[in-house]
Amino acid sequence: MLVLLAFIIIFHITSAALLFIATIDNAWWVGEGFFADVWKVCVTVNDTNCTVIDDQFSYYSTMQAVQATMILSTILCCIAFLIFLLQLFRLKQGERFVLTSIIQLMSCLSVMIAASIYTDRRQDIHNQNPAAYLYTSEGTFGYSFILAWVAFAFTFISGLMYLILRKRK
Hints:
Signal peptide: 1-16
Function: Functions as a key regulator of cell membrane composition by regulating proteins surface expression. Also, plays a role in regulation of processes including cell migration, cell proliferation, cell contraction and cell adhesion.
Largest sheet: 5 strands, antiparallel
Shape: elongated
Membrane topology: Multi-pass membrane protein
Protein name: Epithelial membrane protein 2
Subcellular location: Apical cell membrane; Cytoplasm, Perinuclear region; Golgi apparatus membrane; Membrane raft
């Protein structure tokens, strides 16, 4: 049981790290001479010029939704870990980890919503902005975007593991 708990703790910490990297790092959409994330767009022609995505951009509300759900997912994952540690020693068998599982699955849902919105709306962005050349089809989804989907899978598996683990001694 101790090895299983150690594995779950490492798995959960890995999930949280993936969420932090996907939320913070700037490689959601990359191409030759530019990279973008949910916070800013950077052009790297001669040097790196970054423009923060704010209310000047017509797709700002879409990006706010992605930002908010990624932040919510990261916070929920961290809260689930703290609750896991508290429940580990406080609750009796059968009652353990249900709340942790629910919160972790909510984190999973949040990151899925964020990545889905970004996937869907990324195609519409290039038609709505003077900096549209940055979002042409010549770019590709970057590693932060992929990490967000991997974090979705990890948080989902972690949430299910907590449900299964609640009956173990």
